[in-house]
Each structure stands twice: as C-alpha cells, then as structure tokens.
Hints:
Elements: E1 2-11, E2 14-20, E3 25-29, H1 36-48, E4 67-75, E5 80-88, E6 93-97, E7 100-101, H2 104-110, E8 113-116, H3 122-125, H4 128-142, H5 146-165, H6 170-209, E9 215-220, H7 229-235, H8 237-243, E10 254-259, E11 262-263, H9 264-267, H10 270-292, E12 297-301, H11 309-322, E13 326-330, E14 345-351, E15 354-358
Parallel strand pairs: 3-13, 3-14, 8-12, 12-13
Antiparallel strand pairs: 1-2, 1-4, 4-5, 5-6, 6-7, 9-10, 10-11, 14-15
Helix pairs in contact: 4-6, 4-10, 5-6, 6-7, 6-10
Pfam families: SMC_N (PF02463)
GO cellular component, one term: cytoplasm
Function: The RecF protein is involved in DNA metabolism; it is required for DNA replication and normal SOS inducibility. RecF binds preferentially to single-stranded, linear DNA. It also seems to bind ATP.
Amino acid sequence: MQVSRLKINQFRNLIDLDLEFSPRFNFIYGPNGSGKSSLLEAIHFLSLGRSFRSALASRAIHYEASQFNLFSVVLGEAFTTTLGLKKTRQGKTKIKIGNNTESIGELAKLLPTQFVNPNSYHLLSGGPKARRQFIDWGVFHVEPHFFSVWQQFQQTLKQRNATLQRQMLADQIKVWNCKLIELSVEITRMREKYLQQLTPLITELISELVDLKELKIDFYQGWDKQFNLEDVLNRSFFRDSSQGYTQYGPQRADLLIKLRGNPVHEVLSRGEQKLLAYALQLAQGLLLKKITNKSCIYLFDDLFAELDAVKQGYLLALLNRLESQVFVTVIEGNLIKVLNNSVNRKTFQVENGEILEECLE
C-alpha cells in the first residue's frame, strides 16, 4: 500500500497543499516547528482516524478554520482508490473510501501504518498497555474477525466489572464469565499464533542492527498458563469484587522481552533500546507482507536522533529491503545523503507550513 498523492487543507499550519510522493522513500526536512511532524500526522489521521500527538482531534484544525480536510490517492497491489477525511471543531468525523462513507475500522484495514519516533523505546520500558497494542495492531491486520471478537470482549468485560462494582453474588457474576472466557480464549489463540510467526522475524532483524544473541521474547496471556481461565476467575472472585474490576484475562496480557533474564530496558542503552523497538515494528511490516501481501507504510519522526552514522546506514538499508513506503523527518537536509541516490526517493523541504519538493542532484 502507498499514498501516491495527498491534499491537505487547514491542518495545523499546513493550509493548502497538494503533494505527490515516492512509492519508497520520502524525506522531509526543515527546522523544528516548521510543519514536518504535521505532515506525518496528516497521513496518520488518514490511516487511523486519530492523531499521534493529541487525543483531541480539534487541536489539529488550523486556529482560523472550523474544520480540516484530508484527501489522498492510495495505490494497492491491484487497485487504486481515494481516501477522504474531514474533522470539525464540533467533533464530527466524515470518512470516505472511494464513493462510500466508511468507519475508522475500515480506514485502518485499508492503510496499515506504523508511527515510529525517538520515544518508541517506551514500547520496551513503559507499561504493558503499549505492548498489548503492539500485538493487537498486528493481529488486527492478519486476522479478519479479530476486531469483532475484541469489541465483544471489551463490552463483556465492561459488564462483568460493572456487576462486580455492584457487589453481586458469585452466581450472578458467572453469567458473564462464560462469554468472557469464550472470547478470552479466542483472543489469546490469535495473539499466540501471531507472535509465533513474528518472533523469528524480530530475531532476524535485530541481529542486523545490534548484537543481542541472548534476547528472549515470551508472551504472558494475562493469567497463569497452568490453569484454565474459569478456575482463575472463580478463585479471584472475592478479590475482584473488593477491587471492582477483573484482574485476570487478555486485558492483562504482556510481551516479556528479556536479555539474560533481565527486562531489556534495565540492561540496554537508550540507542540499543531504540534499535530493538525499531526491529519490533519493522518485523510487523515483514509479517504483514508475508501473510496478506500488503505493504505497511512507515512514518519515522526524527529517525536519526541519537543514532551514529553506521547505525543510520544499517537502518536505512533494512528499510530499503522492506519495499515499504517510508516517510522520514530530519532537521538537516545533509543527513539524507546517507541513502544511496539509486534508491527511489523524494525530498521535501518544509518551512513555515510550506512544503516544496527538491530536485535530486
């Protein structure tokens, strides 16, 4: 998948732009605050219907406008379509794929996109929620019915928790247990299947970026594998009831990444953590291509931060091998010279919300 053309209207400081991109590398450079990240954010909105900067979409609307509009031409393996997205200050969203009005879920399915920035190492050092989201991004794109099962699970979990908070008897809680267990087992099955395919690719990619031969990746499903979830829920009823929420289940799952028995964020340098986080996200793109024949779009904000020239070269060579469309922001244009001129690429200079394509030398 690739965004071949993008029209932006009243999005942050990007007032009225019409851009055509390379199917491979697109470098965007300019000073801080010029609008580089806003361009990535616009693409992110088109693929996920939300910002990576703020939970409030209205903040992305230019301060003098009442709405923003995004329009793109998207090329697939065997088709071309258009995407349109409009957000208003009143919170209304309109999404069109071709001539049809669609949901955010359909938008996400069509345009698999990964956002990567210098804080991506928080995937390793932060809480388990980010790692669950990492797993579920991948499962969502390769298992057609995952999203439906996940939605049903969230609703059932919400109902069980509400029942716990009302201090109901164990027999009344069991009404929700049956459905919750059925959905939990299915979600866990899909997650485990996905990670079994992903882990070898992570190991392969990380070996090209940093030496971590003793790296071990395990999946915690959200409860002890030695016991079935029904027994776990029954045993934890009184504690669940006293705390008002369900302590065990796929909502507590985690990806455990360790080096020589220690969590990686405790033993790796910041630069090594970044490279490992990059490898995790790049591996997802490889697996997506392998299973669905869809290419992932990568949005790299300040890709080269805290990486030396050698690591920059390794990372770009790896990205080139993925055959994905890549958008990379950098502050200085000369950093782009790390990439060989033979690679299909375009370079854009950004200044005060204006974006101009540069001619290759």
